[in-house]
User: Fold GGDEF domain-containing protein from Winogradskya consettensis.
Amino acid sequence: MFRDRLWRRDPLLVALIVLILVSFCGFALRRAPAGPQVAVFWLLMVAVQGCFAVCSWRVAGSMPGTSARALAGRRMWRFFGAAGAVLVLGNVVQLGVTARDATSYDAVAGAGPQLVSIAVGIALIIGGLLSYPLGGMGRAERLRLRIDVGTVMAAATTFGLWVFQPPAGGHDLAWALQTGIAVLVQPGLFLVAIFAVVKIVLSGRSPFTPAAGVLYGAAAVLQGGLQAVPATLYLDQGFRPWLFAANVAGSGLIAIGARVQERQVRAGSGRHGRAEAERPYSPLPYAAMASVWLLAFGMLAIHGLAWRSWVVLAGAAVTTALVTARQVAAFRHISELLRERDALTSRLTDLAYHDGLTKLANRGQFMRRLHEALAAGPVTVFLIDLDEFKPVNDAYGHASGDQLLIEVAQRLRACVRAGDLVARLGGDEFAVLVEGLPDDRRAGVANGLALALHGTVRIGGAEVSLSASVGMATGKYGTSDPDSLLHEADMAMYAAKESRRQLIY
Assistant:
């Protein structure tokens, strides 16, 4: 029942899965002679890569949206579709080569046109991947990502050149051309597979749906492993069937991934790409550098300073330089974050301990300083409350009332010493904290505060009368606590209001 439903829902997907399984079983049995076996392999490659091309074009045509990311996604899948078409063309030409002599090296390992089609397909896939935006990254984040990707790609290039087998023959122009094509095809496809995985892992923004991403990741790993296999092994009757089956499976996974992407995009079950949780760093570049150095030590121990050893040592130097550059970029980023943190801490501290309107200390800052001052010695608290402040608000509006409070704050600052603290406790209530004030000067300071807040203030086009009641209290460590001292000053201030006097002490 389940199989029937699956077949009815997507016969192409089921056909691709069955094709991979049957090819594995067929090649593993090794019943067919070498010639038909090679011909069937290239026919299967035409079929699966043709499905990849068709599904890629259909994904590009079914993606919704007109955003820059949606347009980039459609462009990427068109590149993939073109790559699939080129690969199919190369495989069709390869069928002609196989028809002439199915047991020849060119028929088994790939003739020149087929290798060229792979190189062009690689270029198109790289173009599609590079055209997809990283998304939501600043300049520094893009730089760090590119260094990380460059580190992994440098390590992958080192391994790709290490496993590369130059073609046999004389060192003439034809050999050089064949070698250049082989470099593009063997390490090149390996690097594309690595690049696709690395971009998904490090960028935090996958161009694929989750299911398609898993399939493409598996295909990338499989294709990367196949590129490490020397071409001469395809001529070995013992290895050839397994290599054919693995190649069909790798290309089949890519085709299945495109089909799954198409189904999910058409069904609207998810975005064509997904954002992942931001990670502060990835261990992948460091693992890549370590793997290259391990390979370098092994090459030196076994082969000495052979040409491959020099290639690996060059790769180790490049990956180390890139990781060092990444660390320098990380240190700069950390320094910027620390500066931002310090600025934010200063800002939050200022907001926590200062009044937003008058920029004076608030009640919290005043009480903290009062605690500290009482522990150090005698301290005098002056509590100030404006008289008839509410009528100003009612008559002229709250904006005028705010201007009056700002004027009061400026006048109070002008009356005190540099080390004294002026605070707005709330509303129209202010306080001044003075440490070490002699007894004979307390009354003078209180009178000075009252006189500073007596008179008129021009607010806009109106003259507003200003007066305040002042209460004073003095305490010292062991005999007073902040709350009781503030309460004592508060009582003195209210007594002044009731008696219409400016000072009670």
Observations:
- Strands lie at 205-206, 274-275, 379-386, 421-426, 429-435, 455-459, 462-466, 468-475, 503-504.
- The radius of gyration is 40 Å.
- The CA atoms of residues 151 and 321 lie 9 Å apart.
